[in-house]
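Milestone 3.1: sequence recovery, worked example.
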């Protein structure tokens, strides 16, 4: 481990003694006065061993803590198997069903064949699930469970959830290491991990959405950020640089393989690199290698997913290729005076943007790709580029998870002091970055610099600059879309803890108020994070203990009754229609064939889902029956919670979205546009319960409880 050196570029008026004092007090860890190379090496070894041990322990403790919360919340060890499966709500149940499918197949090859030629996820279609969905992790775990001699000691469901909780240990350890790498002390890593746990509500949701794709992907994303942070350190040995780049590639590949939204997240990361490279805050060669690694990782995932169309037509591939092409075409980008460089920078930005849009348009038109069009419709409507009645876009817009980040999030984050520390560090680091950028753009020779510390009045390390722009961009994403806060808040913990333990932060602040001295810097660097740790422990330790002692139990008798009825009263080949969320549970618990499901990244499936959802619209019985039968439906499940929904505001209820898409006036006090017309037919889900013709001729009620109504479709029409 190397020491963090005094920044170069101090003005000549600075006294020479500051250099020696700075070198003495800004070492990697609590360095003792040097008595020789041996003592320094021994101290670094002890510090690294202690810090690494703490990282491992904190990661494991977090994993056990989250697993315990999951057990206490559901009494998972005591409930029936069907209740365990129902607890995997919505798309979580769909993904877990494929793990179960691999385990239940007579042979492993038959299990893989069943996934590649699946005809039960979407009725009357045979699809390749390995191409359509990110389920390689379920396949891998299924193979491991079959191969390892653990069947007698560990149930399949526990092997699955323990793996995911184990990934949380890697996640926290990666956050810890990133903070340590940035600040030079493992104390900041401990503070980052503590903040991650005490802000659990806003940093993770793994304990109640275990199989969700992001819970698989984000630990690898955290590892990737740590690897990028290490890769951007100056003066790395060639072997260390190659190993760091390999770690970036592997973690990028695993992240992309496990989450369908990988391309959008990595695109933001590519924008971070582009920003830093353009402003000369990052060595150009390292930026180019990271662009290449991103493309290589994504294309490898594309190959494993049988040329998945969303990856081939992603903006990320087009953007990275455009950046590398523009750099080849535009020579001497980083030369000249301030105005010259600013003009070249704007031209470079325009060229990359045009190339990206041109290349992406060609790829999508050539391959006729429409997999991600619903996302761009959603973004267009969300950011005010015209109102829309598009059903798919409105389905996202009306979900709280895709709305703006609530203000009470900042109240919770402020209670643990992480938000205050974050804003404090962000302001100081952003000011330094701005000054460094202006200096670089004004320095015609700045393109010659190859290290992290530049000659001039102001300096900023590439790793610090990367994490600064990363946290800003992902913060803007989280502010605009609440679901994406889980990409931002863990990094907020890292960035805040790094700043409180960073010598650069306190040096800038103390010099600004004319109180700088090496001893004061050392005192502030260690006393503030230690006091913060003590405060967080004192205030939140009782709450953590109370959480661990709170015992609850899973209780959903209506859904359990429905699944048991389906298993005992319908043929294995029966086809079921209903809401996406419920049908995922039907597939997991009963193995029946579905008409639609929650994995929405396919244009034909979105059209099919809209057609199936006409059961909640104002449509005649004959029309709904014909639609359902066109998908081979044998049974349709109606839910009172959707038909008479009150959870969403008027205009955002599912029945309202369907009315708008169909051009009908909405029920109740909702504001209707003048061009909407009154429907000629009553709402299907309400009228069918009156048992009147022609409903009784086409649909027969076969099951009913307080929540669900199941109807069997006649085959006469």
């Amino acid at each position: 481990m190397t020491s963090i050196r005094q920044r170069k570029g101090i003005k000549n008026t600075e006294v020479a003694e500051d250099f020696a004092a700075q070198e003495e007090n800004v070492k990697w860890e609590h360095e003792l006065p040097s008595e020789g190379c041996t003592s320094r090496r021994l101290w670094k070894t002890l510090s690294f061993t202690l810090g690494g041990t703490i990282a491992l322990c904190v990661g494991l403790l977090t994993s056990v803590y989250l697993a315990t919360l999951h057990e206490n919340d559901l009494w998972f060890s005591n409930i029936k198997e069907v209740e365990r499966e129902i607890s995997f709500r919505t798309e979580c149940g769909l993904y877990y069903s494929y793990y179960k499918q691999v385990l239940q197949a007579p042979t492993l090859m038959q299990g893989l064949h069943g996934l590649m030629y699946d005809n039960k996820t979407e009725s009357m279609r045979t699809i390749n699930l390995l191409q359509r969905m990110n389920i390689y992790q379920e396949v891998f775990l299924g193979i491991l469970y079959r191969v390892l001699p653990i069947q007698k000691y560990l149930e399949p469901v526990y092997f699955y959830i323990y793996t995911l909780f184990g990934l949380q240990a890697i996640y926290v350890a990666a956050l810890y290491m990133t903070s340590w790498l940035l600040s030079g002390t493992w104390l900041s890593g401990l503070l980052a991990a503590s903040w991650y746990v005490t802000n659990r509500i806003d940093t993770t949701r793994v304990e109640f959405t275990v199989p969700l794709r992001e819970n698989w992907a984000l630990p690898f994303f955290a590892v990737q950020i740590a690897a990028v942070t290490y890769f951007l350190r100056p003066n790395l040995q060639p072997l260390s640089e190659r190993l760091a780049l390999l770690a970036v590639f592997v973690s990028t590949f695993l992240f992309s393989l496990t989450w369908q939204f990988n391309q959008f997240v990595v695109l933001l990361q590519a924008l971070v690199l582009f920003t830093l490279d353009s402003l000369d805050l990052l060595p150009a060669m390292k930026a180019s290698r990271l662009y290449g690694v991103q493309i290589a990782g994504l294309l490898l995932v594309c190959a494993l997913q049988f040329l998945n169309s969303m990856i081939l037509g992603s903006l990320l591939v087009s953007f990275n290729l455009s950046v590398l092409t523009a750099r080849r075409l535009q020579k001497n980008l980083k030369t000249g005076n301030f105005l010259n460089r600013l003009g070249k920078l704007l031209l470079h930005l325009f060229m990359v943007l045009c190339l990206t849009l041109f290349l992406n348009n060609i790829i999508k038109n050539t391959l006729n790709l429409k997999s991600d069009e619903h996302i761009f419709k959603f973004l267009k409507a969300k950011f005010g580029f015209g109102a829309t009645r598009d059903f798919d876009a409105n389905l996202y817009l009306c979900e709280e998870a895709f709305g703006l980040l609530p203000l009470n999030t900042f109240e919770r984050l402020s209670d643990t002091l992480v938000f205050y520390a974050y804003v404090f560090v962000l302001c100081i680091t952003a000011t330094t970055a701005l000054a460094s950028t202006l200096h670089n753009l004004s320095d015609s020779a700045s393109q010659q610099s190859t290290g992290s510390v530049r000659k001039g009045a102001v300096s900023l390390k590439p790793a610090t600059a990367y994490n600064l722009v990363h946290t800003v961009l992902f913060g803007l994403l989280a502010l605009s879309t609440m679901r994406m806060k889980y990409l931002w808040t863990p990094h907020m913990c890292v960035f805040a803890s790094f700043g409180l333990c960073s010598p650069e932060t306190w040096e800038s602040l103390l010099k600004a108020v004319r109180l700088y001295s090496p001893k004061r810097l050392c005192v502030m660097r260690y006393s503030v994070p230690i006091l913060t740790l003590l405060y967080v422990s004192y205030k939140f330790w009782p709450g953590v203990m109370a959480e661990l002692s709170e015992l609850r139990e899973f209780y959903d008798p209506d859904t359990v009754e429905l699944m048991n009825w389906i298993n005992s009263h319908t043929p294995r080949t029966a086809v079921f229609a209903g809401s996406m969320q419920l049908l995922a549970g039907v597939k997991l618990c009963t193995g029946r064939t579905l008409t639609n499901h929650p994995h929405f990244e396919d244009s034909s499936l979105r059209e099919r889902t809209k057609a199936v959802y006409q059961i909640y619209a104002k449509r005649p019985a004959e029309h709904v029956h014909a639609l359902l039968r066109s998908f081979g439906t044998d049974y349709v499940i109606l839910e009172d919670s959707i038909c008479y929904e009150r959870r969403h505001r008027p205009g955002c209820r599912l029945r309202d979205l369907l009315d708008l898409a169909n051009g009908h006036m909405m029920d109740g006090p909702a504001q209707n546009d003048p061009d909407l017309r009154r429907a000629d037919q009553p709402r299907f889900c309400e009228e069918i319960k009156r048992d009147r013709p022609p409903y009784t001729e086409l649909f027969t009620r076969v099951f009913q409880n307080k929540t669900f109504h199941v109807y069997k479709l006649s085959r006469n029409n």
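The first helix runs from residue 17 to 25. The mean pLDDT is 89.
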